[in-house]
Amino acid sequence: MAASGEQPDREKVPMSCMEMLREEAIAVATVMRQNTRFALTSRVKGEHELLKGVTDILRGRDLTEEEAVAPFIAVMVSSETTGSMTGAALAATTRLVDSHVVTSQCALQQLLQAVVSCQFEETDRSDDELVIMQMLEAVTAVVTSPKGTALGSECLVHTVETLLRLIGESRCSTLLRHSAFSSLGKMLRRIFTDLRALPPDEDGGKADVTITMSPSTAAIPHPADLPPAGANVGEEAGAPVDVVQQAG
Alpha carbon 142 to chain centroid distance? Predict the structure, then answer.
């Protein structure tokens, strides 16, 4: 995290990366325009605010990374969007992080907070779980990125708690729980690898690190306690209400 009083980094998207950013914006906008609500609004009242935010990227010049990810974040957290729209925004931001188009600490923190708070209209259960898997991919991409573990303990602990709840949710399919377990493992390996690199304290020892978890956090199961991947996938009923909030 930046030291107290310092301004967060406001890095510009390199011109060499603008083409990829525009391609991701086109992909998300295409999915949104396939929805009747957004298509009708565009014909009658002009582009919907969420859609306009995405298409404005196509006309943008000299964008900061925060400005570049803001339209995708708006799609993720809006209760008006469908699972396919949210999934498209999640997939787009995952590719942007993996390709190092988005690297600043400020933009990554905004993305991580949005991903774990994403919303969409509940539809078919298998399709909904596919979106949640895209959420897991996005979370993993952000936390394992070069600046991922510098996003602050509160943000990281909240992310870990979210995955723990998902792993312990018996109503989720076995495949989804295994995916969450795998994502959590990748995140924790990166976090504890970076902890080893902490500078020593004044006494010459490693700095003490205290990580506190909410008492309500579900205990992480041992891998042996999880059913084999692919066994009875999709037979459990319900949806992970703590992970994806339903539209009001």
Answer: 7
Matching residue, tokens 């506190």: 212
State pTM to two decimals.
0.75
- Determine how many CB atoms are found less than 10 A away from the CB of residue 5: 5
Identify whether the C-beta of residue 38 lies closer than 8 Å to the C-beta of residue 51: yes
Residues 6+ apart with CB under 8 A from 213: 157, 160, 161
| Look-up of token digits 């339903």 | 246
Signed CA dihedral, 227, 229, 233, 237: sign only: positive
Q: What is the dihedral of CA 93, 16, 145, 176, to 10 degrees?
A: 30
Q: In this predicted structure, which of 11-15, 44-48, 195-199 has the lowest mean pLDDT?
A: 195-199
- Write down the H helix ranges in the chain: 18-33, 36-45, 49-59, 65-77, 83-98, 105-115, 125-143, 153-167, 174-195
* Closest to 50 measured CA to CA, from 82, 68, 83, 72: 72
Output the CA torsion sign for 162, 102, 9, 75: negative
